[in-house]
Design a protein that fits this description.
Elements (H helix, E strand, L loop, with lengths): L9 H7 L5 H14 L7 H17 L4 H15 L2 H14 L5 H14 L4 H16 L3 H13 L3 H12 L4 H13 L7 H13 L5 H11 L9 H13 L3 H13 L7 H13 L5 H11 L3 H13 L5 H8 L2
Length: 322
């Protein structure tokens, strides 16, 4: 069964944009065309492409490392454990070659996400550390994400700062989050706010929402923001398709907070949040419709909310929809 795993999309560009000679480029073009790289827009096309690469890898000598890179990225995109097991022996051999550095990050990600075991996780961290020390920023960010997920915030803060210092805006945002909430570093909301403002100017999607949250939560610091400023930033993040920002904006229009109550706008932004994947949104839409005595529609949204995994809707369904 295929399931897309989380991994850094920049790996794909990183591997395909590796500086190679014109001759190697021509070889790669031929191999990619013959190995099944195509428009990957369905489960069937993923399966066909994976099988194409497996066949190519098994029979090819010329340009084998180029096939291996592309195949490993496709495996990460698809989440196929079967193909991860198949490619493992090839990756082990590739790490013994002079081109070891090209395979460190992809191999580590396969071990972290698809071939999980305590031993493989430790080995993956070793590979990522080696890649990070050799200047591969993507490895630094992945390490930071790993330690953040394990709540080892002192480590993640150092790594996010390191990655952010070389121009990785997502890492810089995550370091600002550490400053905002005091995760592994001394809490410094003013410094966090300055980072968010800088990142907003760089069009970072979530930075304006973070500014709004900081304004909402911090009443004891001189952040210099007005209510109008906060809502303006929230609108900006919602326009950048951030699910949580659309949810917060919808709720504020619903409850008449910082903006005048507007049920049509509340419904619009909550529906946007639902489409963008915020599991709270469907439940809130149900409540909004319930206040307007639209019971049938309300129940439909509570049912959708429950399907999405938001268990709070169970009580509403029991009370109004049976």
């Amino acid at each position: 069964m295929l399931s897309v795993v989380f991994f850094h999309n920049t790996l794909y560009a990183q591997s395909l944009n590796t500086v190679i000679s014109d001759e190697e480029n021509q070889v790669k073009s031929v191999l990619v065309n013959s190995c099944g790289r195509m428009e990957l827009n369905s489960k069937d096309s993923f399966i066909s492409a994976l099988e194409g690469y497996r066949e190519c890898l098994g029979r090819s000598r010329l340009g084998n490392d180029l096939i291996l890179l592309d195949y490993s990225i496709l495996i990460l995109q698809s989440g196929s454990k079967e193909h991860a097991r198949y490619i493992n022996e090839y990756l082990v051999e590739a790490l013994k070659t002079p081109k070891r550095g090209d395979f460190l990050v992809n191999t580590a990600q396969i071990y972290l996400h698809l071939l999980k075991s305590e031993q493989n996780t430790l080995y993956a961290l070793e590979l990522l550390t080696e890649a990070s020390n050799s200047g591969k920023d993507i490895a630094t960010e992945i390490l930071a994400d790993y330690y953040y997920g394990k709540q080892q915030y002192e480590k993640s803060a150092v790594l996010y700062q390191q990655s952010g210092n070389v121009g990785n805006f997502e890492s810089r945002f995550m370091y600002a989050q550490h400053l905002h909430y005091g995760l592994g570093v001394n809490k410094n909301e003013i410094l966090a706010l300055n980072e968010y403002i800088y990142l907003d100017k760089k069009k970072h999607d979530r930075a304006p929402h973070a500014i709004f949250i900081l304004f909402s939560e911090s009443s004891n610091i001189d952040h210099g923001l007005s209510s109008a400023d906060a809502i303006r930033f929230l609108h900006k993040s919602a326009e950048r398709q951030v699910a949580g920002a659309n949810f917060d904006l919808g709720i504020h229009y619903f409850i008449d907070k910082l903006v005048a109550r507007d049920m049509s706008k509340a419904l619009f932004y909550l529906k946007q949040a639902d489409e963008l994947g915020d599991i709270r949104a469907a439940h809130s839409i149900g409540i909004l419709l319930l206040t307007e005595n639209k019971l049938k529609q309300s129940c439909e949204w509570f049912e959708k909310s429950l399907v999405n995994g938001y268990v709070k809707s169970t009580n509403k369904i029991d009370s109004y929809c049976k």
